[in-house]
Amino acid sequence: MEGPRSSTHVPLVLPLLVLLLLAPARQAAAQRCPQACICDNSRRHVACRYQNLTELTQRLDLQGNLLKVIPAAAFQGVPHLTHLDLRHCEVELVAEGAFRGLGRLLLLNLASNHLRELPQEALDGLGSLRRLELEGNALEELRPGTFGALGALATLNLAHNALVYLPAMAFQGLLRVRWLRLSHNALSVLAPEALAGLPALRRLSLHHNELQALPGPVLSQARGLARLELGHNPLTYAGEEDGLALPGLRELLLDGGALQALGPRAFAHCPRLHTLDLRGNQLDTLPPLQGPGQLRRLRLQGNPLWCGCQARPLLEWLARARVRSDGACQGPRRLRGEALDALRPWDLRCPGDAAQEEEELEERAVAGPRAPPRGPPRGPGEERAVAPCPRACVCVPESRHSSCEGCGLQAVPRGFPSDTQLLDLRRNHFPSVPRAAFPGLGHLVSLHLQHCGIAELEAGALAGLGRLIYLYLSDNQLAGLSAAALEGAPRLGYLYLERNRFLQVPGAALRALPSLFSLHLQDNAVDRLAPGDLGRTRALRWVYLSGNRITEVSLGALGPARELEKLHLDRNQLREVPTGALEGLPALLELQLSGNPLRALRDGAFQPVGRSLQHLFLNSSGLEQICPGAFSGLGPGLQSLHLQKNQLRALPALPSLSQLELIDLSSNPFHCDCQLLPLHRWLTGLNLRVGATCATPPNARGQRVKAAAAVFEDCPGWAARKAKRTPASRPSARRTPIKGRQCGADKVGKEKGRL
């Protein structure tokens, strides 16, 4: 159900709300609905900005208020609630017993708030709750027992928080949870019994975390898992010794990681595995997989597959086991670009042709060193040299991870095992990283240097790191980065530079990284994007520039970037959409411009990316005016449009956006008169929750634009239009002429050249 919105958020004091909730419960049934609410007495639903509710209310929408604190027993006056929406309410604290008395509640939505913790009894009294949304908060830890009272819960969403560790029995009591979402956190450690007590769990989302090794024994506690999502973690290897045993697992996603090798029995104890997703890793070869006899789909796109003789067993197994695969050969040269599923074992040359063998060996040498094959740990009777490790550091041979985190080091240590794949040097103090700082680490994949006080990377600092993919330099003192500093790391794909002191994008350095996939420059002090800053970075797909001071994006600053999919420019100082700079981005899917002082959108603002764009964020941008053709060029491909929390009093109909799955118009002060009739007509044809409510005139305040037919009945053409429409008809694209100030295209056009 839609909640009404206002142009300004009025702080809602919940202790006062409690008193207001109690009073009407004892009054006669014939009650008046409060001015700031919408009451549907037949369905017992209420959506309000501040409430005076009945005891029988079942749905309560409070999103977009400034609650800050949810006190104890805050909703005891509405015991029949089944749905409670508290999104975007700036909530920082939920008191113990805040929801006591809501024994019928099925959905509680606390997403997009500022919660850092949940007291142990904060969720008491919610014995019927089926779905709990905590996405987009700042939760740093989970206390065992927090969810113990939620015995009926089926879905728990903890994505996009700040979790780094899962303690034992973190989800104790969740006997019916089927989907647990923990993606987009910073989880690196899971306690041995972190997932104990989840007998009904069928889907676990752990993608986009910091897991450096496959936590097989922990995951195997969830014996009923059917889908496991582990993509976008810095995993470098998976084997039988990792201990993954999930007898019911059907889908396993390990995409977008750093896998360099896979043991043949890595999934031997997952006999029902049907789909294995290994896209976007660093696998150049793959052994025939033993154990998952029901495997039918193997996804290998984006791996540097080498289709030499050693790949023949893989092809034979794929054919024998009837496994469909994708992916393409990177080499040798004669097979480069060939689809793996189009090859037959006899297409691959094996020893016997000395000239061909020598040619392929030379090609492999040029392609870079291969990681030595890793197998299970050696037995006690087998010889094994003791691996070196610097004093005060920990080096784990089985995982090939070395860590000196928080050891108080004043210089980069040396002497790590030569096969180290992950090196963690966080929270030390290195004012500079000298030339050749990491000798002998040619197999290093992930390097962590966050919170080290680094002000400079000297030329050649990364020399010899030919397999490095992840470089974390967040939270340092860097103001610049040279191309020479990054020489020696040609495969670097993920560069994290958040919260440093950059005044400009290090364009020359970025162009020296031919494999750069994702650039993170959030929360620096960049004030302008100059020509060539991001252009000609041919592999770049994700760019995050949120929270800088950017006032201008010059022509040629972004493109050409043929592969760029995500561009985040939110929380900057842009006064106009940088339309000209969007030229040359044919693959752009997501554009984030929220939190900029835009005020107006001119005609054709997004024309250059109209064919590709799927998600557009313009919320909290001070928008007062949107020209009729602002979204021209954006057609059926656009899936979500975010315009909430602006200053829009009017909005043209947008019939070309026919495939929208989400449009958010909440928290805008819409003036509901005949000017808004085209928007009303368009919204009535959408089967979507849009959140648009009337702020003025007074007699329409709080009504949904979509449902406020009475407001528009006296408008010219209303009766004729209504007579012509049939239930199956679509709203017309014709706009009613709008009186008032003209769209500021002329003023905006003057600035087009510099943008």
Topology:
Elements: H1 14-22, E1 37-40, E2 45-48, E3 59-61, E4 69-70, E5 83-85, E6 93-94, E7 107-109, E8 131-133, E9 155-157, E10 165-166, E11 179-181, E12 189-190, E13 203-205, H2 216-219, E14 227-229, E15 237-238, E16 251-253, E17 261-262, E18 275-277, E19 297-299, E20 305-306, H3 312-321, E21 324-325, E22 329-331, H4 354-367, E23 394-396, E24 401-403, E25 422-424, E26 432-433, E27 446-448, E28 456-457, E29 470-472, H5 483-486, E30 494-496, H6 507-511, E31 518-520, E32 528-529, E33 542-544, E34 552-553, E35 566-568, E36 590-592, E37 600-601, E38 615-617, E39 625-626, E40 640-642, E41 662-664, E42 670-671, H7 677-684, E43 694-696, H8 709-712, H9 718-724, H10 745-750
Parallel strand pairs: 2-3, 3-5, 4-6, 5-7, 7-8, 8-9, 9-11, 10-12, 11-13, 13-14, 14-16, 15-17, 16-18, 18-19, 19-21, 20-22, 24-25, 25-27, 26-28, 27-29, 29-30, 30-31, 31-33, 32-34, 33-35, 35-36, 36-38, 37-39, 38-40, 40-41, 42-43
Antiparallel strand pairs: 1-2, 23-24
Number of helices: 10
Q: Please list the strands of the largest sheet in the order they lie side by side.
A: 1-2-3-5-7-8-9-11-13-14-16-18-19-21
Distance between the termini: 40 Å
SS class? mainly beta
How many extended strands? 43
Provide tags for this entry.
755 residues, mainly beta, 14-stranded mixed sheet, 13-stranded mixed sheet, 10 helices, globular, disordered C terminus
Structure description:
The structure is a single chain. This protein is mainly beta and 755 residues long. 9% of the residues lie in helices and 15% in strands. It is built from ten helices and 43 strands. The strands form ten sheets. Strands 1-2-3-5-7-8-9-11-13-14-16-18-19-21 form a 14-stranded mixed sheet, with no helix packed on it. Strand 30 (494-496), helix 6 (507-511) and strand 31 (518-520) form a beta-alpha-beta unit. The longest helix has 14 residues, at 354-367. Mean pLDDT is 82; it is low at 1-51, 364-385, 722-741 and 745-755.
